[in-house]
C-alpha cells in the first residue's frame, strides 16, 4: 500500500470525499461502483468488478446467461453435465 499524505475527515453523515487525484489513479469515474474491504483498522476501496457467480474469481471470465463465470467453473460444470461449454 502506498501512502499519499492526503488526510480527510468524515462529515456529519459519516461520508468522506475520495480526492480526484486518487480516483484518477484508480481509474474510477464519479458514478463508477466501488467495493469496500475491511481488515482490522484498515478500509480498502477497489473499483468494483463483478467476479465469477460461483467462486468470485476475477480471472478468465466469460458471460453465460448474463452472469460472469470463470473458465475453471465453466469446465467443472461441463464435467458435471451442466452444459456451459
What does this structure look like?
- The protein is an alpha+beta fold and 85 residues long.
- The protein has 2 domains: 48 residues, Ribbon (Pemi-like Protein 1, Chain: D), CATH 2.10.260; 37 residues.
- The protein is 19% helix and 24% strand.
Element layout with pairings:
Layout: H1 20-26, E1 34-39, E2 42-47, E3 61-64, E4 67-70, H2 71-79
Antiparallel strand pairs: 1-2, 3-4
**Structural class by SSE content:** alpha+beta
Averaged pLDDT: 89
Percent helix range: 10-25%
Shape: elongated
User: How many strands appear in the DSSP assignment?
Assistant: 4
Low-confidence stretches: none
The number of helical elements comes to 2
Biggest beta sheet summary: 2 strands, antiparallel
- Radius of gyration over C-alpha positions, nearest whole angstrom: 18 Å
Euclidean distance between termini CA atoms: 39 Å
Strand arrangement in the largest pleated sheet = 1-2
Architecture per CATH nomenclature, i.e. the level-2 architecture of the largest domain: Ribbon
Keywords: DNA-binding
Protein name: AbrB/MazE/SpoVT family DNA-binding domain-containing protein
Pfam families: MazE_antitoxin
Domain SpoVT-AbrB: 5-50
